[in-house]
Amino acid sequence: QVQLVESGGGLVQAGDSLRLSCAASGRTFSRYAMGWFRQAPGKEREFVAAISWSGGASAAADSVKGRFTISRENGEDTVYLQMNSLKPEDTAVYYCAAAKYWTTVWKSYDYWGQGTQVTVSS
Fold first, then answer.
1. Tens of pLDDT along 14-73?
2. What is the signed CA dihedral for 69, 110, 9, 39, rounded to 10 degrees?
3. Cα(109)–Cα(122) distance, integer angstroms
């Protein structure tokens, strides 16, 4: 079992930056690939970014490429999502998740946090 707790969300203006954090506890964090997903009201959950267990590989959705960066600190059992140049369409609840295998498919993730709200005003 892995417990995940997100933090760092909030209300910002377009063009601002935010850094989301996801603290993990339970089983060995470094054995899991980690991902960030988001869900806006009335929309399906969508992939944002993912990183392999070692941090050696990562991927990001086209909609956030060049603006968002995922990283992890295995020594601190934490994964981050640095979000720059935020847009109103980035408004959503952001979730971090852990998977036993490297994947960008949300249904393949085994453990989820409770989510943190990010709201970007225009």
1. 999 999 999 998 878 888 999 999 999 999 999 999 999 988 999 999 999 999 999 999
2. 90
3. 33
For tokens 């992939």, what's the residue? 47
* Sign of the Cα pseudo-torsion (122, 114, 76, 105, in order): negative
Residues 6+ apart with CB under 8 A from 89: 63, 120
Residue 113 class from Cβ within 10 Å (0-12 exposed, 13-18 middle, 19+ buried)? buried
E strand residue ranges, 2-115: 2-7, 10-13, 18-26, 33-39, 46-51, 58-60, 68-73, 78-83, 92-99, 111-112
* Rounded CA separation 52/94 (Å): 19
